[in-house]
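User: Some background: our group keeps a shared notebook of sequences we're curious about, and every so often someone picks one and asks for a predicted structure to add to the entry. Today it's my turn. The entry only has the sequence so far, pasted here. Could you supply the structure so I can complete it?
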Amino acid sequence: MDPKPNWKFWKKRKSFRPTTSALVTPTTAATDATVVAASAVSATPAEPASIDDPSTSNPPEQHAPPISRPHVSKTEAWLSRATLFLTFTKSVTEGVGLTPLKAVCEGIVTLLEAVQTVQDNRSAWHELISSIRAHRAAFQQQLGQRGIGDILEEVESSLKGPIEEYLNDVTELLANILAESGITEEDIKTNKLTISVLIQRIGTTKLEAGVINDCRLRLQTAQSKIMQSLLLYIASSVGGSKDDALLAKLQFKKPSDIPRPRECATGTRTDVLTRCKEWSVDENAPNILWIRGHPGGGKSAIASSLVKELEIKRNRLGSCFFFQRQNATTMTTTALWRTVAYDLSRHPTIRKTLATMMKKEEIDLETPNIDVLFQQLIQDPLTKIANIPIEQSPIVIIDALDECGGVQGHRSKDREDLIHTLDSWSKLPPNFKLIVTSRDEGDIARLFSQTRPHIIELLTGDRTDAQSKLDIQTFLGVELQKIANKYPKSLPSDWPGSDVTQKLAIKAGGLFIWASTAIKLIVDGEPEEQLAQALKGKDGGDMKELYTQVLEMSFSRASELVMQNLRCIVGTVIASKEPLKSSAVARLLSITDSAMEYICTGLRPVMESDGELRFHHQSFVDFLLDPGSDASKFCISLGKAHETLAFGCLKIMKKELRFNICNIESSYTLNDEIPELESRLEKCISPQLLYASRFWTTHLEEASPSEEVLKDVQDFLKNRFLFWLEVISLHRLENRGGVILLILLKWLKRHGQEDLMEWAGDMPRFIAHFNTLILQSVPHIYLSALPFVPEQSWIAKEYGPRYPNTLKIEEGGDRRWSATLNILSGHIGDIRSVAWSADGRRIVSGSHDKTVRIWDAETGQQQGSSLEGHNGWVLSVDFSPNGRRIVSGSDDKTVRIWDVETGQQHGPSLEGHNDWVQSVAFSPDGRRIVSGSDDKTVRIWDVETGQQHGPSLEGHNDWVQSVAFSPDGRRIVSGSSDKTVRIWDVETGQQHGPSLEGHNLWVQSVAFSPDGRWIVSGSDDKTVRIWDVDTSQQHGSSFEGHNGYVQSVAFSPDGQRVASGSSDKTVRIWDVDAGQQYGPSLEGHNDWVRSVAFSPDGRRIVSGSGDKTVRIWDVETGQQHGTSLDGHDDGVLSVAFSPDGQRVASGSSDKTVRIWDVETGQQHGPSLEGHDGRVRSVAFSPDGRQIVSGSSDGTVRIWDVETGQQRGSSLEGHNGWVLSVAFSPDGRQILFGSSGKTVRIWDMETGQQHGPSLEGHDDRVQSMAFSPDGQRVASGSSNKTVQIWDVETGQQHGPSLEGHNDWVRSMAFSPDGRQIVSGSDDNTVRIWDVDTGQQHGPSLEGHDGRVLSVAFSPDGRQIVSGSDDKTVRIWDVETGQQRGSSLEGHDGWVWSVAFSPDGRQIVSASYDKTVRVWNVQQHAPLLEMSFKKPSSYRNASRMTDGWIRGANSERLFWVAPRLQMGLFPPFQTLFIGQYIQTRLDMSKFVHGAAWTQVRGDRAEASA
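Assistant: Of course. Here's the predicted structure to add to the notebook entry:
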């Protein structure tokens, strides 16, 4: 025997890949051809098309071409597979994966089976073969998992080692076998290995049992490592529980008692099911299959059967959804695609994609934009598996598309949304399959005429095909046999015979619903008699005739009352917005239980009544609503059904709504903290009450205003409103609540019920005003919302007296509702533009989410689907004058026109701009569009042709931000980032007159006045300006008031007012003639206001914001808040008491000094104006007749308190900001320090500087003070030190006071001059001994931020400090401890604090623009306020998220954001600022477990 060859080359992972023919010699080619042919059938391919697809190794039988298989011996087959194994082993040397591993296992099993023919060690060989077979099965099982390819890509690195180890062991075993067989490497290379040689040599293989067993054990170890690595990864990737909670949010929780439609009877519809299955694996077929047919044709049964036949959710990725008209409110398009996404998330890649997006909160599951939802949940995830094989590709079934949208059908927005998304599905790759069943209705037919799906039509009537007739006959035979079995003594086993069964099948006319209803009819009575009835009448599936027979048999002798109840019941089942159980229907309709049961029993052949009432088929609804039916006594009016339901809902609410309906024990507990809330809701709020609370106005909308209905509406408004809000709150329907009431308002208006409109008008405002609170807590509807209702509102007058034991507004509060009428939500990106339609009924908005949306201006509901097509942000929108079209401009550089009714783009996009289109507008006649772009041009377009009209208007040298037509259409105005406004002649394309210049930053918005004489412009320079078109000059002064960039401006229709929106988050209205702001700012947005527009009647303003909402404002309500409140327009940086304590002076970033009366809070005289920068410091003279101020403009000014005039010239000389000023004790000198690092003393009599500047600080001087005797000056600096100076010599007195480790912001002498207090950015307050220069006691610590201001009390025993932690604190000088709780109320940094001369009050100033005065004498730990009854509202109380909390953090009451800043906390005696000031009387306030006593002794008669 030849020496044992060296087979190391098998382990070197070279690129040598021999083919099968390389292993045989040319001389044996003819013989070997047979072997290769056999292997082509039996062996697994070396490189499957996709590792995702285990079936590629065994393709479906129908795809395998027929192969002529010559006779091949068993030995030859084994050896051919062994030969291929050699090739496989080579092919996997360069890669890692389960598919080649599986192939290796198959090949080596074949080889070993050949070796096993040798008698030696047969048992050992057998065990080895069994092990490798098990390995192969395990690998195959993992290859069968969905998305395994994606998993293997990610886990490749961790699997690589174990797989290589396994292959090494296999190749070593192979080398040993071949070596023992005498096969050399040379035999392979020189092609000398023939089949006969291979057979002969392998047959002589002899390996010791120990070698074989060792190989087996090593292979098992390697395989175990592979499986362990793989299974661990799959467990975390596929079944990872961390994503389960996230993905569970996708799942649509349909009512548990909604069954899936029955499947086709066994042996029926086989031809249709076969055609569906063939389509499902046809890659060349359209990806949508439409099964269409008349009502009752069996579409739903086929859809239900396909779920089983196609193994959806079992072996094939997919989903199914069955629409039902009765469940239109829950089974929506949103529910459909959420269900599909959840089901598809079984695929690891889709699961990972969805989970990642949800973690990043990139998916808004509540968005009304169904197109965006479809893209995020379906389209984007599916593209991740675009190459999945057809056999594994997802298939989705949607049944009863025509029932989407409920009774509204094709008119519903939900149906429209679904149609739109199905169009999107048709654009997906062909391997993503969708089956749709429906009637052949207009909108559905139009959709599929464009998408061109594969169609299977179910023929009925005269067109019924033979197979359908046979299927129905089979179904009837099975069901009739069941009936015969119930009567074994009286009916023959083959009853009623094949002839009768065939007659019934003919009468069915291809309608399975006819056959099914006939069976139900026969089952529910004496069989022979009922069968005879079923056989009467015409052939061809006449459902009307059959339904008439059913009803006549059940109710032919019914009384008029029964017939009336029957019509009410079936009308309710049809008109209800969601299915109801018989008990709920009985209560709504005031029908007795026995009458309900009798009628439901009679309707059993056509209605399911065991759970929720549902008709078996939509065709029965069609029958009942057909006014031309022969059975007119059974027919109903849909309008009458709605009226009956509206009346029933009002009666149920009157009967069942009550105070504290769920018996909530404590007002401290929020709704979501209530124990076992779900069980309470089920127990306390009946199904009929919940239904009535949700849908009463929906039915009322379709009803006539009968006297009885109006009486019940009035009762609801006067007595039930707050009780109804409890249901809205507990069931989290607060967003629905406002819509419900707006529908009521529209109904009242339509029917001229003005008196009730006044009452009802308050209620949507109540919900909008307290929306956040209503969502959180039922008790606080009474404790926190009702008390803060504007005192002049109808709700306050009607409901307030009924709940006396709550807090009362003693002073301030809202006198009228806020100006916000409605908030429109839906966009998922910043809103850049809004506009009204000419009739005021619609609003259009454009957003960063790339969509345009249309809204109902009355209800705030989105109309139709979003208009999609832009590939970038939508920056501008406008309505055409006739309201039929919308134009939009985008950063995708295009202008697009949309048809309002269809929601489709009108014509091609208008292209020509080569940069963002910032602004678009229609001409007054609607024939042209103007656009402005970042390409610096203005362009005019012809609407009909879509062509540019004339040349581009050029002249701006920077971005064109805004454009508009003049009212006569002859001119265009444009505003640009080049800071100019330009006017253009439309016909000539030339600039009209000079540019309008005056703004010193970008012009963001321009508009013409209605008469065309004026132009308004808004700019980043924070101003609004009006220009005279004829003179090109600015008209009057600029409108100033915004604290941010002005983003949008608009004229009112009468031209008397201008609205502006700004980055300061406010909308402001300006009086054009007066040049003043008209009423207070409209506040509510929490991001930039990007766009504003007046309604055509001028009574409303719409605004769009970066907070993704559109708000509608009432112009007059906003104005009715009265004159603007006194206060600074910017942060307050310094305050000081006058020596007599009767006045306070304040200096602000608004560049003014103001004087305030401490008793009244009113401003004393006009503001002191003159500074050109922030006023950083103010101080009174010792006699109180003068005020000194220092400013960032580098000047010091002295003001006469009585006249408000500046005295003398400004004191100048500093080379930086003046940060601190002070009078000397005798009033003869002024001290001031600056960022220029120096301190100066100014002589008031000479007007000259007193002595040299005091220099020594090497950083800015932040604060200074005279000693009480006037002989010394102390200064605190950014260099972290305090220094003391001798006034006469100008020399530093003693060493610097060091200890702070950050800037010293403030310092002050004690009244006796022996101590100095300092506050620092190191968050501490320190006390120093003036004589020794040492710190006195420990640092005073407690602030959570920088200490910006400190002061001693007049008696020197206390220190007050203010900090950027927004608190004021009082400290005991002797103990170093804080006295009492912190004084809280400011919403910004506290820049300045001071004691009153008598030490009884503290004044504080903050960057929140307010000044507050606090009562020090009442300040003590947990001191109660002097209420008539003790209250938990103490100084320890804090406000968090609008909640005032008690000492134990319990929620006492909630304050609306509008009132939070002006609310007087305990111990505050004065508030100065531009906020509504509110004082509370809490003497009767009940809370906690006592909250139910809010009604006092008065019992609600209506409760």
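Suggested note for the entry: The chain has a mean pLDDT of 81. The radius of gyration is 43 Å.
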